[in-house]
Structures are given as structure tokens and as C-alpha cells.
Design a protein that fits this description.
Blueprint: E1 33-37, H1 40-50, E2 54-58, H2 73-80, E3 84-87, H3 96-103, E4 108-111, H4 136-153, H5 158-183, E5 192-195, H6 201-207, E6 210-214, H7 227-240, E7 244-248, H8 254-263, E8 266-271, H9 285-300
Parallel strand pairs: 1-2, 1-3, 3-4, 5-6, 7-8
Length: 301
């Protein structure tokens, strides 16, 4: 069996469960690869690369928060039926290991973030930041990894995957340029992000925002905070003049609303950070990013 190349990896914690590499991929009856992505945004990115050359689906439904996801028994069957499984990696899919163990069999696992250098939490208690997809430039690396994985599993589709990936990378570069243009309309002193949890570090670094604080000092939306922590956030808002708190649509807004009552800041609670929507406003990854940027710019300009 030949060794698998860097773009296709098996998570280290799962290395005893599966063989990935030169397996004989069994296609569906219509000849298409059965590809399962962990999230809706990864499914959309993959669909742009593969077109109708694969059967594409997302393990998590629209509106699901991966940080809080409770797996269903049917998830095991869906994984068992897949030829390829696409994960973000960086411990984002914390729920996946028991599902893979129960599914059994062999499949190629593509880690979209492979080869990228993640941000590490300063205290190391929360691990690395997995939210790389909120910088479209990093998604270009996702596309390359997914493209190469698809080619390894389905060499006959190589030319299609390469051409589609090139076209989608160009769209991502256009998206990045559009975001830069939109952000330029915000005065530098108002490029302040106050978020619910630590999700927007890569976005902030790329587009010149300052992360003022987070309500929940964690990379997961499922973590909690204390009264002392809330008081510290309020002090930071008053000191910085941050005009808004930004939350993902799946996040609980109670604490943000409480802080808003004490500080007078706006609460923007309809960003889509972890999931696409079934139709507008975030039907695709690019739509999701444009919606988020528009909401952020409107709140800070």
C-alpha cells in the first residue's frame, strides 16, 4: 500500500481505527464519489471544487453549532456509507471520534486545514483556534487540500477538480479584495470587535481589526463565564468605546443583551460563523462572508 500524501491525513487520535490511502473507493450506483463534510460551509466549498462529479452532503444540518452538536445514531450510518470524509481539523470536530469508531470500515479523511499554522490560545487551556475559514485567504489552502484529496480518491476526475479549484480560488481572492474595500470605509479607531467567544481572530488579523474582548473567554461557544468576567468585559467596552457586540446566530444572546443594557452598545446577533443557512442570507460560504462583513461594517462605520 502506498503512503498517503500530506493533503490527506488521518487524525492522530484515530490512527488505530482506519487505514487511509490506497483503498479501493467504491462509488455509488451512478459512479459518483460519496463525500461527507462535517459542516455546511465545508460541503459548499467542496461542491465548488467537485461540481456534480460527487454526491455531496453535510453531517451537521443548517444552523447547527459544532461546539454544541449532539450526534444522532443516523450520523454513524452516514459516515459508514461515505467514501471521503472532509473535516476542518484542529480539534473542531470534537464529536467525531466515537462516530468513526462505530462506523467502522475504511475511508479517506481529508483535513482541510492541513499544513496551516493555527493560533494557539495564550493560556493553552483551550487549545488551538480552528476558525480559519473566517479568512478567505486561508480557505484557498482548504481548497488545495480538498482538491488534492479528491484527485487521490478519484484520479479520473483530476482535470475537473483542478479547473474548478482554480476558478473557486479566484473567487476567494475576489472576496478578499471586496472585504478589504468594505472595511476601508470604517475609521481605523472604530475597527473594534467584541465577540461572544473567541472565533474571529483570523478575520481580525487579516483585515486590521482589534479584538477588544470576548464575553466567553474560550474558543468554544459552549464555555461559560463569571460575574467577574462580565464586569471586566463591561470595563473594556467603556475604556475602548467599542460600539457593538457581535454574536453568531446560534449563540445565546442573553449575556450580550445584559451587557448592552449596562453600556448602551448595539448587539448584532445574526452573524453566521459556524453554519450556512438554507437559502439567504448565507446560502454559500461566499454569501456567508459577505453577509457577516456587511453586518460588521454597518455596525461600526
Amino acid at each position: 500500500m502506498k503512503k498517503i500524501f500530506n493533503s490527506i491525513i488521518i487524525l492522530a487520535t484515530l490512527s488505530t481505527l482506519f487505514l487511509t490511502g490506497c483503498k479501493s473507493v467504491q462509488k455509488s450506483n451512478d459512479g459518483a464519489l460519496r463525500v461527507l463534510a462535517s459542516t455546511t460551509f465545508l460541503a459548499d466549498i467542496t461542491q465548488n471544487i467537485a461540481g456534480d462529479h460527487i454526491q455531496m452532503s453535510s453531517l451537521l444540518p443548517f444552523g447547527a453549532d459544532p461546539h454544541a452538536y449532539q450526534a444522532a445514531p443516523s450520523d454513524v450510518a452516514r459516515i459508514a456509507e461515505s467514501d471521503l470524509l472532509i473535516l476542518n481539523g484542529l480539534e473542531y470536530e470534537h464529536f467525531i471520534e466515537p462516530l468513526l469508531e462505530n462506523a467502522g470500515g475504511e475511508r479517506v479523511i481529508i483535513e482541510a486545514s492541513a499544513g496551516l499554522s493555527p493560533k494557539e490560545d495564550a493560556g493553552s487551556a483551550h487549545g488551538v483556534d480552528p476558525h480559519m475559514w473566517l479568512d478567505p485567504n486561508l480557505v484557498i489552502a482548504y481548497v488545495a487540500n480538498i482538491r488534492d484529496g479528491l484527485i487521490e480518491a478519484d484520479p479520473d476526475g483530476a482535470e475537473i477538480y483542478k479547473a474548478n479549484a482554480d476558478a473557486y480560488m479566484a473567487e476567494l481572492k475576489d472576496l478578499d479584495a471586496w472585504i478589504v474595500e468594505q472595511v476601508s470605509s470604517i475609521p481605523v479607531k472604530r475597527r473594534l470587535l467584541l465577540t461572544n467567544h473567541e472565533a474571529m481572530g483570523y478575520f481580525a488579523e487579516r483585515y486590521g481589526f482589534q479584538i477588544v474582548d470576548t464575553i466567553i473567554p474560550s474558543l468554544s461557544s459552549e464555555a461559560g463565564t463569571s460575574a467577574q468576567g462580565l464586569a471586566a468585559v463591561i470595563d473594556e467596552i467603556k475604556a475602548s468605546g467599542a460600539p457593538a457586540i457581535f454574536l453568531g446566530e446560534v449563540e445565546n444572546a442573553d449575556l450580550a443583551n445584559q451587557i448592552a443594557e449596562e453600556t448602551g452598545v448595539k448587539v448584532v446577533s445574526d452573524l453566521y460563523l459556524e453554519s450556512l443557512t438554507h437559502g439567504a442570507p448565507a446560502a454559500t460560504y461566499i454569501d456567508m462572508m459577505k453577509h457577516n462583513v456587511t453586518r460588521i461594517v454597518d455596525a461600526l462605520r
